[in-house]
Amino acid sequence: MLENPRSPRVRAVAKLTKRSARHETGLFLLEGPQAAREALAYRPDSVVELFATPGAMERHTDVRDAAARANLDVVLTTEAVLDAMADTVTPQGIVAVARQSPTAIRDVFASLPKLVVICEEVRDPGNLGTIIRAADAAGADAVVLTGRTVDPYNPKVVRATTGSLFHVPVAVGVDLQTAIDRSHAAGLQVIAADVGGGDFLASRDKLAAPTAWLFGNEAHGLQDEDLARVDFALRLPIYGAAESLNLATAASVCLYETAFAQRG
Question: Which CATH superfamily does the domain covering 8-99 fall into?
């Protein structure tokens, strides 16, 4: 059993909360049974280490069994060791280390997708994680992140995806113009979500076509030069007194409306 919270092995795992360590190692941190469960179910080869308290293994026998099927040994630890590794206050007795596995931008569009998400300068980890989760739920084919967007392997992003990071292809560090050009070449229209855009309801009939949605920064949205590159922009109506919608909420509505139209 791993008992020393200050051991080199524990410190190496804990460093993965920092982007520099993730960049250097190509690894990232998973916390809690849900993240471990989804990783082992969908990308078992990506999981390189699995740490758990004895109590957690008794509670989550499906995670233990999935690790066995992946020929992955579970390293038993004390609660203090798990606490030292984790980014959260309550890691629920399970922490794993996985290899980053981003999808190449050419592969995103090679299969002629119908629904793609492009994020430009999305900085809030919770927002990005929720957008990836919504994209997964809406049946999107991929998520493309520009180099100005938060690291998708940030622990807060990973937690907010609740496992969807392992379900949907995610391309990272992509130039925005490249993402738009690839979308157009694959036959997708590119629509920007923007408060200065056209009436969403008046344009719903256009959403049945293959579509790439572009979402911008939480505070200032998209730059004028970015908006000039897309086919058109749309805004969601506000019927109540709210000043605006949270970015992830707005993205969820846009993606589901498109999913409905494409499946209608």
Answer: Ribosomal protein L30/S12 (3.30.1330.30)
Alpha carbon distance 170, 144 (integer Å) = 6
pLDDT digits (tens, 9 = 90+) for 29-84: 999 999 999 999 999 999 999 999 999 999 999 999 999 999 999 999 999 999 99
DSSP annotation string for 51-63: EE-HHHHHH-HHH
- Give the distance from CA 12 to its chain's centroid: 24
pTM as predicted: 0.96
Tell the CATH superfamily of the 105-263 domain: SPOUT methyltransferase, trefoil knot domain (3.40.1280.10)
What lies within 8 Å, CB to CB, of 110 at 6+ separation is: none
Q: Is 99 left (phi over 0), alpha (psi -120 to 50) or beta?
A: beta
